[in-house]
Write a structure and sequence with these properties.
Shape: globular
Strand content: 15-25%
Order of helices and strands: EHEEHHEHHEHEHEHEH
Strand order of the largest sheet: 2-5-1-6-7-8
Helix content: 25-40%
Structural class: alpha/beta
Oligomer: single chain
Number of strands: 8
Number of helices: 9
Length: 218
């Protein structure tokens, strides 16, 4: 039977997708589940090592991270520089391999929810390919209302189901941040799954206590 899982997307790059993904993994592990993280495309980051440390399933690099790109730029450009083309079928095959050895797979996207992956497809096409409910991480900073609402609308138009969203306070000086969260709660249909307070060096084990892990059916 195929493992259940979630796709963690973001309203932008640097909004805390890895942090939330690791927190989810630690939450599932605490519930006694076999949990594994997946980073289909990594571009110039150490996210894969953090996901591995948060899960409790050993899996090969080719499954956990099918595309490891060195340049910290948009994935389709990083792939072009590396002389490769990102193939969604290859990612789907790796995901199915992980699903055979885990109870739940947490897939972390790259960049924003619509970032291009190749000349024809973007991250939303990957979400549709894997057929996973989406957890949207909203980086709470100036402009987040527009980013979150546009992203949610784009996902809905593409027929993608959102499990919910997480508010991550990445800017400690953001004015009226609580009011911004309230505005999103009023306008977004999917539920708020947690509010992550600002931390200079956030730790996934601590962040998981701010997520409503019982709302996840993993």
């Amino acid at each position: 039977m195929m493992a259940r899982g979630y796709f963690v997307a973001g309203t932008d790059t640097g909004v805390g997708k890895t942090l939330v993904s690791c927190a989810l993994l630690r939450g599932f592990v605490a519930r006694g589940l076999r949990a594994v993280g997946m980073k289909p495309v990594a571009a110039g980051c150490d996210d894969v090592d953090r996901l591995r440390a948060a899960g409790n399933v050993e899996a090969g690099c080719a499954w956990v991270n099918p595309y490891a790109l060195s340049a910290p730029i948009a994935p389709h450009l990083a792939a072009r520089q590396a002389g490769v083309q990102i193939d969604l079928c290859r990612i789907d095959d790796a995901f199915r391999q992980l699903g055979a050895i885990a109870d739940v797979v947490v897939v972390e996207g790259v960049g924003g929810a619509l970032v291009p992956l190749n000349d024809r497809e973007d991250s939303s096409d990957l979400m549709r390919k894997l057929a996973l409910p989406v957890v949207l991480v909203v980086g709470m900073r100036l402009g987040c209302l527009n980013h979150a609402l546009l992203t949610a609308e784009a996902l809905e138009r593409r027929g993608l189901a959102m499990a919910g969203w997480v508010a991550n306070r990445i800017d400690p000086d953001m004015p009226a941040w609580a009011e911004n969260i309230a505005a999103l709660e009023q306008r977004l249909v999917p539920p708020l799954l947690g509010v992550v307070p600002f931390a200079a060096a956030p730790v996934a084990e601590e962040v998981k206590v701010f997520l409503c892990i019982d709302r996840f059916d993993g």
